[in-house]
Amino acid sequence: MADKALLSSQLGSPSTALPRHRNRPLAHIARGIAVLSMLLLSFQIFHHLSPRNFRNDGHCMRPETETGTLVVQSLSRCPAQNKVSPVARPDITEKNVNQLFKSDSFQDLSVQRLSGAIQVPTETFEDLGRLGEDKRWDVFYSFEKYLRKTFPLLHEKLHLELVNEHGLLYTWQGSDEQLKPILLMAHQDTVPVAADTLSEWKYPPYSGHFDGQFIYGRGSQDCKNNLIAILSSITSLLDQDFVPRRTVVLSFGFDEETSGFQYGAARLSKRITDIWGPDSFAIIVDEGQTLIVDRFGRSFGIPQVSERGYFDLEVTVHIPGGHSSIPPAHTSIGILAQAVTTLENAAEANFPLELRTDNPFYTLLQCAAEDPSTEMPNELRDAIGDPQGTSQIVKLLSHDPIIKSLFHTTQAVTIFQGGNKANALPAFANGLINYRVSSTETVGQVREKLINTLKPVADKFGLKFTAGPKPGVGEPPAEVPEYTLALSWNNAALESSPVTSTDSPTWSALSGVIKHVFDEPVDGGDVTVAPMQIIGNTDTRYYWDLSPQIYRFGPGRDRHNDGPGGIHDVNEHVPIEVHLEAILFFHEFIRVFDEADLE
């Protein structure tokens, strides 16, 4: 994931990869493009700053003065920054953390486990038929078989329930039923590999090839890395006869990479609710952006505490076709082009920039700015320190498109289709516009703005104007009559998520274990943990009622990556260091939360 600094002299272009799906239905292609482009954008803000050290009590220690004394400044604007390490079972720390996880044999085993998972091609497609009817779903039988074979002790000790055939729901029963359980998530499925890209892969996409540094293959980053790391960490604990006090639940869906289906995580969340009830989990952790990033000359841990909403608008123009030698003044494509241009010209008015103090990004900026030793421009630092300075922050940062996207609902025209022959007038033209909805407004409010923006276009060309939802999955498509400009949307629209509070013992435990695993005091690389908003969307959309404490991240240090990692693109790969760090993190996360007083 590309780095990006704060001001124009430091800004670099984000390195993103585009999806390679072709000849797919309009609405289905859209999700691949929009989700990918946002998923690949990580935290790209802080860069080129002086190193500094942090004490474990959450106070900033500036460099020594001439007298040798230290100036200590409280990180008053940051949430809890205390390192939290497991206390019980120091033998596990010695045998697993200090010995096993650092051994060459464990690295070899970890490569073998993840490589084998990649070799099971768990692709999902937008044109999949119903579960039980389309044989392409059957690959998940093979993946389940692989997991059973690879982690026999785990499958002996944990209870596995198959939810809706392929959803994997594991329960590691704790000894204290009064403690709320923890829930770890991942998804089994991957995006497909386009046949016309095979020649571009350095190694075959389902080989799981390890070159000594990276493990290659579809799903290596998204997100078999997390799934295998979770199972590996639990297996290592089971090997040491660890018995949790707090129940651990694992939920692995199988349709995260598709739109329209609700076979995996949606059914899993319902089953979990049936078993445990609402608001029953102490914490939920799912995939997200890389957790540890180096900015401002130091390390930041950025668990993502919220997601923006998601909404696709399809615009269809239907007028009579005919021979191109007798054209009207405006073809369907021409009218659609004017509709799209109208939307783009109105975007600034429809979606003004705004930074509210409850935006997680604002908290992160405060954490970064309060240390006077950093090389942040004074004008920006002053604006961040001013309670009334949010508009100035927007002014200073909004020239960068990645940062700007955090300040408002974004609009992106991603698909434009019409016509298939040079001498034929197209009767239909379709466009799809993707919206990432800011937490400052609802999907309904966005729709209303778009209706008000586009109705005058229909009036201008004497067309009937319609707007409404599409039929559900499995229902016949709605017909658009001639002389109509129609707006439609599917049921995949998603409101912005609740924002997880950092003023909680759960945050304290999470930030504590992040610092425990990733602090590097010898190298001056202690981690400051601050909340962030994820740019894409995850399966946690179905789990909001199960806990107010939901976090998204990929455990590991961004410095090990050599770019975006090929997520959804050719040459997807993950550094072995990142995979090993993920195993260590989940191992210690389970232990710390087993001891934490959260109730």
Automatic annotation (TrEMBL):
It comes from the Eukaryota. CDD domains: M20_yscS. Zn(2+) 2 binds at residues 187, 222, 286. The keyword Protease applies. GO terms for molecular function: metal ion binding; metallocarboxypeptidase activity. Residues 7-16 have a biased composition (Polar residues). Residues 306-458 form the Peptidase M20 dimerisation domain. PROSITE patterns: ARGE_DAPE_CPG2_1, ARGE_DAPE_CPG2_2. This is Peptidase M20 dimerisation domain-containing protein. The active site is at residues 189, 256. One of its GO terms (biological process) is proteolysis involved in protein catabolic process. Pfam families: M20_dimer, Peptidase_M20. Keywords: Hydrolase, Metal-binding, Protease, Zinc. GO terms for cellular component: fungal-type vacuole lumen. Residues 1-20 are annotated as: Disordered. Belongs to the peptidase M20A family. Gene3D superfamilies: 1.10.150.900, 3.30.70.360, Zn peptidases (3.40.630.10).
